[in-house]
Amino acid sequence: MKIIILLCLLLTAALSMNAQKSVCGVDFGTKYDKAEAILENIFGTKAEDSNSTTIYYYDKQYKDYSWNTLRFNFQQLQTERIFNECTLTKKFDTPEEASEFLDQLVKDLQSKYGNVTKSDVNRHGFNDYYGGKNPYDASRRGFMIFAMKLSSGKYAVNISFGPYNMAVTR
Q: Can you give the pTM of this predicted structure?
C-alpha cells in the first residue's frame, strides 16, 4: 500500500513539473476580481481598454523583460470569470531585432523549463516554439512563443500561456 501511495505522489510530482501554474503572481483559475486586485498591486491601474473578460497593461517590466503589452484573459464559467490565458508582447522595428529577442527568450525559457521545442516556420518567417506543461493537462503544452509582422510594419514577439480550459478543472 505504501508503494502505491509513493508511486501516486511521484506521478503527481512528475506531471506538475515544469507546469506554469501562475503568471505575474496570478494563479490560473483565479476569479476576475481577485486577479484584478493582484495585478493592480503589481502593475498599478489597468489600462482603460480593459473590459470584463480582458485586463490590459502597457509598457511594464516582468521577469527581466520590458513588455509593450500584457494581456490577461478570463473564461466565463456560469457566473464567474476565471483567469485562463496571458499573452506578453514586445514590439520591434526590424525582423532582426525580433529574431534576436526571440532567440534569447527561447534560450532563457529552455534553461528554466528544459523542454522548449521548435516548430515549423510560421507565415511571418519566424520559428514557433512550444514548452512547459499545461497545469491541467500534462499531455499539452504550457506556453507558445511566436513572432509576427504587424500591420504597422513593426514586428512582435509574443509568449502566450494558455488558454487553459478552466471548465475541466471545476
A: 0.85
Averaged pLDDT for residues 3-25: 52
Long-range (24+ apart) CB contacts under 8 A made by 56-61 are: none
Distance between CA atoms of 67 and 57, rounded to whole angstroms? 9
Residue ranges making up the domain that contains 130: 2-169
Count: domains in the chain: 1
Render pLDDT for 47-95 as a digit per residue (tens, 0 to 9): 999 999 999 999 999 988 999 999 999 999 989 999 999 999 999 999 9
- What's the 3-state SS for the chain? CHHHHHHHHHHHHHHHCCECCEECCEECCCEHHHHHHHHHHHHCCCCCCCCCCEEEEEEEEECCEEEEEEEEEEEEECCEEEEEEEEEEEEECCHHHHHHHHHHHHHHHHHHHCCCEEEEECCCCCEEEEECEECCECCCCCEEEEEEECCCCCEEEEEEECCCCHHHHC
Can you read off the three cell numbers belonging to residue 112? 528554466
**φ, ψ for residue 121 (rounded to 5)?**
-75, 130
CA torsion, points 110, 89, 53, 170, in degrees to nearest 10?
A: 0
